[in-house]
Amino acid sequence: FFFKQKTAYEIYQCDWSSDVCSSDLDSFGVNNEQFSLTSVGESREAGYRVELVQVTDRYHHRSFRLERKLFLVFTSRLQRYLVKRPHLAFEHRRNIARPLVYLPPGVRAWTAYMPGGLATQPVHNPETKTLASGKRVDPLTRRLFRHSIDAIGLRSRAYIMTWRIGRLLEKTKEPVTWLSLASGSGQPVYDAVSVLGPEKFRSIIITDSDTETLAFAAKLAKQEGVIAAANLYLEQLEVFDSVAFEKLFRVHKPTIVDAMGLFEYLQADQAAELLDRVYAELPCGGTFIFTNMSPDHPHLDLHKRGLGWPGVITRTVEDMVSILSRTKLPKSTVEIFRADDKV
After folding, report:
1. Do residues 280 and 202 touch, judged by C-beta distance below 8 A?
2. Model confidence pLDDT, tens digit, residues 48-106
3. Do the beta carbons of residue 191 and residue 128 sit within 8 Å?
């Protein structure tokens, strides 16, 4: 499962003996202009195999090395400050981490969109010049989008998703349909399509409950050429509206479903319900990719009490396995990936 990067979970709907569903982890790894992934080992957690993945992108390269080091030194000090003062809530008047984080004007404007997709869009694409509001992204805010641990993790999960969908596409002869649940701006979907090729998709469905966010997703798709290159649909959807949910699957028949920024905002019973509902709708060979922020996030205190990002429920693999145990999903249909940023 994913959020900003979180541990990545993937659910298959198929006969696990089928070649269509083979994960081919022995050939794990990709390197392109956008990112590179390398398998660096595995662990066993709660009875599941967890693939450990080293993820890099252009902001790991030499030209950004000094900038990243300085930024991480500063934010790591803020993290240590908060760890030593667990009594300091985000709103506490003596919490000096909060005003330091909010010093750049762009950060103050950007946080108005938390926790929605309009906040995550410029983090997926840190070279964005303006926010959805039209306000300029200043140099310090751009460095937050490039180098914060949250930002690194957010992009890592999207790269793993892109790689995994690419592996699925290698095993399909015809274009597939991709449904993105609570997809916000659509930026990670558009980025993945640009890497994988729009011709691989029969249609792409971007959904969100917020009409303003969907309008921005439409604008972004036009700017990035997705509308011209792919059969794109934008649908307002409350994920737990069972009638609208079932209609969406009946009309579009998606092979790929993602919920990259959703699970960490769901209670355990809601997460289990959504897993069962998606699994019941997937065709043989289909896949569902989702994420959840980990309590091992190295800057979790800064995320919660410095930045004040609201509403996230962190979960371990054990926590997610407990949710999976409430569902009808066979254990053999689940794959778990964790990026080296540990978000």
Report:
1. no
2. 999 999 999 999 999 999 999 999 999 999 999 999 999 999 999 999 999 999 999 99
3. no
What is the DSSP code (8-state) at residue 303?
I
Which tokens go with 283? 């065709």
Token pair listed for 320: 């997610």
Tell me if residue 7 falls in helix, strand or coil. Answer: strand
Query: Are 192 and 200 within 8 A, CB to CB?
Result: no
For residue 64, what are its two tokens?
């950004």
What torsion do the CA atoms of 189, 207, 165, 46 make, to the nearest 10 degrees? 120
- Radius of gyration of the CA atoms of the chain, in A: 19
Residue 46 CB neighbour total at 10 angstroms: 15
Instruction: Select from 90, 95, 92, 82 the least CA-distant residue to 111.
Output: 90
Give the angle subtended at the CA of 161 by the CAs of 147 and 24, to the nearest 5°: 125
Angle between helices 187-196 and 117-124 (to 10 degrees): 40
Residue in this structure with the two tokens 């592996």, named with its chain if needed: 167
- As a whole number of angstroms, the distance between CA 312 and CA 82 comes to 18
Q: What's this model's pTM, rounded to 2 decimal places?
A: 0.91
